[in-house]
Amino acid sequence: MTRVLDPHTVRAQFPILNREVNGKPLVYLDHAASAQKPVAVIEAQREYLMHYHANVHRGVHALSQQATEAFEQARVSVQQHIGAASSNEIIWAAGATDGINLVAQSWGREHIGSGDTILITEMEHHANIVPWQMLAEERDARLEAVGVLDDGSLDLTDFQEKLKVNPKLFAFSHVSNTLGTINDAAALTKQAQAAGAVVLIDGCQAVPHMAIDVAELGCDFYVFSGHKTYGPTGIGVLYGKEPLLEQMKPWRGGGEMIDVVSIKNGTTYAGLPHKFEAGTPHISGGIALGVALNWMAGLGLEAVMDHEVTLAAQARNGLRQIEGMRFIGEAEHRAGVVSFVVEGTHPYDIGTLLDSQGIAVRTGHHCTQPLMERYTIPGTVRASFGAYNTLQEVDTFVAATQRAVRMLRD
Amino acid sequence: MWLQRSERFACCATNFALMSQTLQSRQEEIVEEFAFFEDWMDKYEHVIELGKELDALPESEKAEEHLIRGCQSRVWLTATKTPEGTVHFQADSDAIITKGLVALMIRVMDGLTPEAIAGADLWFISRIGLDTHLSPTRANGLESMVQQMKRYGIAFQAAT
Predict the structure, then answer these.
(1) What is the pLDDT of residues A321-330, one digit of tens each?
(2) Could you identify which of A203, A403, B41, B69 might form a hypothetical disulfide with A224, taking C-beta atoms 3.0 to 4.6 angstroms apart as the criterion?
(3) Is B146 exposed, middle or buried (CB count within 10 Å of its CB: 0-12, 13-18, 19+)?
(4) What residues make up the domain containing B82?
(5) Considering the domain boundaries, does residue A36 fall inside one?
(6) How many folded domains does chain A comprise?
């Protein structure tokens, strides 16, 4: 039986959505930048700080044991949520950016050499471009990007072409934050691996909206951020296949990641997953992220996706009536993201006028400057939807955009 | 000799006093104008009008060297010194609200002496609530523009 999501029940769990902005009820359509938090997540962090805060993995005392247990249980929640084989494959990172940098600095410096190719796509977030660019520069390697077609889908002919040089790594986004394009991650992974590449998927815009199964995807690495998936900021996840992580050297040194430290005889490292987690981790963040994922699963992930896609479709139908409307990202498979420009107006002005009407959208390049270059636009207005958004909010947004465009153009 | 210097000082002081008065009255005028509008949509409507009324810069002037950084939209600012010794500003932006804000800045600062521009206290921005209402990026952009105008003021001062 397919479940249907009731956004009003969901909304009731988000205290922030009751507030006003500029004298108007807040309409929050900037989920892709960061999701708001349900009470369950807020309470999980509060509960930890109020009742069992202590450092993890080292104390004999009750509080430390309780904190360690909750923190490690959260790791298991993440493992189960994304279908990883073992909790050893779940590395806590500060965010997706941090996870990608870990792979670039640890796996990358070991495996990327002079003349090698790192393959990304033109639709990547800067977080999935710059760490590779830095690595390529350091190792004298080449960075290549698979092109994007006019409709915002990946150019698969170009992909085949670029695989011919046998890239060492293929890093791509599961879902584009700007275009909303959902890439066929399993197929891309399979082909890239057949060409000899290790595959990293940036799942920041996928995990908050759909069920993820890394075993089914077959990827070597998968990263995502906590705050985009209803969890706290400052916490994220790097998934890696255990044999691969096992071979990798630690990136950051410090406490927590060691076995024995001797100034005379050197240091031996802890096993997985702690070898990559130097220093005291974001304990409350990890615990609350586990809660956030369980909370999401409780909504029914298919229902979440269906709901958000319905909202996006209604938004497009409304916006399409505006003269000079141009959608950026019209691929067949899309998540709940609507990116657009309107002839004769600047995205920034539309964003400002929407904010004045209590509506939060993002404007600009969305950390995807190569994509803006690709479409020769200064930026877009982007509305992105979450489980808590309603059809009424979409109507408010469409009407407010119409008003903004009228004011700017007349 | 002493008398000459004193006279010259008196003349400059008068001029400076006149310039500050102009700066004050221009700002008061803008504050009054904005007090008329009740909500921010109306204020923005007015800003947009001002933006549309401001003469566009010729394309040739929209050059990299006139670009002001620190904003999501682009702003170009040029300054020339008139034979009377005052500064003439021209500016443009690719976003109309930004252009309206730019028009306000020009209304306040155009035609003043380099000294008055370099030392200008621009209180109208906070009085009409722009500093708190604008997004941080837009506020940064506006601040960059103020700084750039003052830099022109200082440069023209040094040139005399």
Answers:
(1) 999 999 999 9
(2) A203
(3) middle
(4) 2-159
(5) no
(6) 2
